[in-house]
Amino acid sequence: MTQRNFSHTPINLAEKLGRIPDLWQQRVVAEMNDYQFKLVRIEGDFIWHDHPETDEAFIVIEGHLRIDFRDGSVEIGPGEMFVVPKGVQHKPFAEEEVKMMVIEPRGVLNTGNEGGERTAQNDLWI
Amino acid sequence: MTQRNFSHTPINLAEKLGRIPDLWQQRVVAEMNDYQFKLVRIEGDFIWHDHPETDEAFIVIEGHLRIDFRDGSVEIGPGEMFVVPKGVQHKPFAEEEVKMMVIEPRGVLNTGNEGGERTAQNDLWI
């Protein structure tokens, strides 16, 4: 049996979030196979986008996240999660700051295929 | 663009955990592609096992989880997470009840390839 060397240190989400300097700048904290766990602080409005190739999971740690869809919206509070199905257009919104985790395959951009100035740097770790 | 019908209801982790009747019985609350988000309440000792085909992510919601490895251990508290690499033998332990989320591909058993009486029913939703 392979016993790879790896750190025996837990990942504290609040501590990591506290070290992310800017809003909307996602930071990777862990990987599971080809998936990444990313932390991000957001406030205000984002752009409409979708991820044609993958579902996207959100877990809210602090604050209240609203995700708008073309046919409605969902409110996600602390200790709640939601999975946006692939190909579904959505727009995150936070009236006040939200701290959350996003889980999705490595390489997925925050703006999907839309590009533009709101596209965050990808694959940055904290 | 496909806009599948899906529920616009957030998943409240504490509420779901409160409805799991028995310790060690994992319940699926969401899927992301071919991965599942499972909630479980544990207390006491588990068996040594590994998952030869996949990493396994743990997010602790309440309590303190210890995962023993052949060469050490990690303590994971509320709001902390940890990813056990594939093929690494591990044994979860909770001195007092731990409520946690496990994220891994659909079909992975809690006992890996070990089998036996501690193997929980798989793919049960709550």
Automatic annotation (TrEMBL), chains A, B:
Domain Cupin type-2: 45-103
Matching Pfam families: Cupin_2
InterPro entries: Cupin_2 (IPR013096), PKS_Associated_Protein (IPR052044), RmlC-like_jellyroll (IPR014710), RmlC_Cupin_sf (IPR011051)
Protein name as it appears in the record: Cupin domain-containing protein
